[in-house]
Amino acid sequence: MKIISYNVNGIRAAIKKGFLDWLQQASPDVVCIQETKAQKEQLKAEDFEAAGYPYQYWFSAQKKGYSGVAIFCKKEPNHIEYGTGIEAMDFEGRNIRVDFDEVSVMSMYLPSGTNSDRLDFKFKYMDQIQEYVTNLKKEIPNLVVCGDYNICHEEIDIHNPKMKGVSGFLPEERTWIGEFINNGFIDSFRHLNKEPNQYSWWSYRANARANNKGWRLDYCMVSEPLKNNISRAYILSEAKHSDHCPVVVEFEF
Hints:
Order of helices and strands: EHHEHEEEHEEHEHEHEEEEE
Number of helices: 7
Strand content: 25-35%
Distance between the termini: 8 Å
Number of strands: 14
Helix content: 25-40%
Radius of gyration: 17 Å
Low-confidence stretches: none
């Protein structure tokens, strides 16, 4: 089973850059999308069907053109969970989950902390999603939480580890993601890949992507019971439909 997570920074813009052709070639079983910036009715379902994804599930923000997550599947899931039931999180369309026999897959878009108000919102979200996922794992032990976490965990995950006071690499954020992992998850990419200079996001400024001055903000977090099922985990940095690139985890069941 192949799962891709991709912050597309606007699904309509990504489609104009060849996203659907790329998706058909990449051919994951499940693709988790973040930052759709669209409502379901603004897109053509048949375009995704033609790419091989008849099952399309959207959870958009109430504010149009903002945030939003989606999951596209080749096979019909047993169940789809829209949001978390926590209103403070759900109005921005940040979580959607599909359940299969072997595994449940969540697409999550954790807020960025661009200013003090948003940083406060981010910290509140981090607390709430940690509690939600901890409880969810009791019910669904085989869980994969894919998405844009908007946090670099370790110094190896950022091109300039001396960067201070910037959201995404704050000590409190790094501690939180470390605790998220310690509460029963595996960072699937780092589990299999120890090499530096592996990133999933680059600023549009200062030619950052060409110079590989990036951040690893996107993760496929895999619950501990699935550890022995992980067969591959990698980053598709050559895909250029967004300021992010896709991250992938593959399982053998």
